[in-house]
What does this fold into?
Amino acid sequence: MNKRITSTVNSLVTKFSRRNALLWLGGTGVATTLAVGTQGQALAKNNKDDDVTLINPPTLYNAPQNGYSHIAITPPDTRTVYISGQFGSDLQGNLVSSEFEPQLVKAFQNLRFALSAAGAQPEDVVKTTVLIVNHTQDKLIPLGREIAALWGFKVPANTLIPVPRLALDGMLFEIDAYAVIPEKRDRR
It folds into this structure.
């Protein structure tokens, strides 16, 4: 059995582009490789009518292997939450580090705090926008780890925008999010 799994994983990995391999090495692991190795599951729809529907049509490339979905459709009777760009700051607004990865990790932690404050959960996020200063493909490795840790295989729609700078000197990463909270869970 192990030989068969190893053979399957090796054949899938050889088909990856450099970017996809970087994301895979970034912490999403063998399970993601096996899950995204085919485009056969274009529609990730849950059994409940109040869940977000994620669509990755076979007429577009396999986006979940890169940590996002092409389309997110929100259900009726939901409340929309817009979260401003979160960055690697402490409670005083100071950058936690001058380096990219610690800022990225803290920004994802701050995103979790913002979601919680709004009564939302990570699975309620339908769209994110990521801004990276002086973007290189190597920065996709820690980004892939954080995406996998927060969303696993059900990744929201996303746009990554390389930028020359952000609002504050030394700021290297920012992520904003749009979430929808089902009415039945809305306690406000």
